[in-house]
Amino acid sequence: MSTVTRDWLDRLPKVELHLHLEGSLEPELMFEMAQRNKIELPFDSIEQVREAYEFSNLQDFLDIYYQGAKVLLLEQDFYDLAWAYLKKCARQNVVHVEPFFDPQTHTDRGVAIETVINGISRALADGEKQLGISSQLILCFLRHLSEAAAFDTLRQAEPYLDRIIGVGLDSSEKGQPPEKFSRVFASARDLGLLTVAHAGEEGPAEYVWTAIKDLKVSRVDHGVRSVEDPELMTYLVESRMPLTVCPLSNTKLRVFDDMSRHNILEMLEQGVCVTVNSDDPAYFGGYMTENFDALAQALDMSHDQARQLVLNSVEASFADDARKQEIQALVAEFDDS
Ligand code: ADE
Ligand code: ZN
Question: Which domain holds residue 271?
Fold first, then answer.
């Protein structure tokens, strides 16, 4: 059996369902924006930024991630951020994306939500027209902030809901259970939005249950700690509840000591609808191809497993049925040679 090469993975049509746009801000663009917006960074050089990207846990990373996002001020900044990500997707044959954005990270600095959404959605529209990448946008609430702040954010987003498919929940997980946001998520569903939530990344399997039962999510982001609860695993297999797993993120943030210990392929073989994603690629050392490649290198992922992981992403996506069929056909037709 031949091994999965990086070139084959690059060409394999792919779908990304767990990507924080703010986490795709490369140090080069961060410096460029800092200069043009006259914002001081606590780093002297791009090399120094990269050297700072050593994390012991999620909070360690979030502190640097929120710091980096401060360079984003104008609509053009949000456009440039999303456009750089989409160009990367085009180079790696990622054909459909469902990015997250964190409005509170910007509105709390006085940036209007309209500025954020206009910049991002204009880039996504250009991505569809110029690069053929279809997309759906997801607004995330920061779970370390209050329920009232999340309600306020939902209210601010209401005029723009035609450009948003759903809401999510991210930021520090420990001590911030999903059910803190049950009422906000109920309001979002009443407005016609779908729901997803980060759960079971650093937090316990119990949070995966409450994301499913209380927030009524269509997908769980991360969810790797689900393996600690056999009843939950049975539920995930039977319901085909998707998990958007992020291998490089999990090793960078020490959820797993080493990629060889990652549980994604075990879960795949057990019938869980696991998918591969990059989370915050500028901070964790890689985009979609690099995440798949890490699994090939450390876990001997086969071609069939890689294809199944993509088909799981298509199944789990919020694309319409016609687009899902198009992508399934691209994967089926993909030339192996
Ligand atoms: N925000 C950006 N990346 C995140 C992650 N991996 N977990 C929680 N919140 C995040
Ligand atoms: Zn994430």
Answer: 6-317
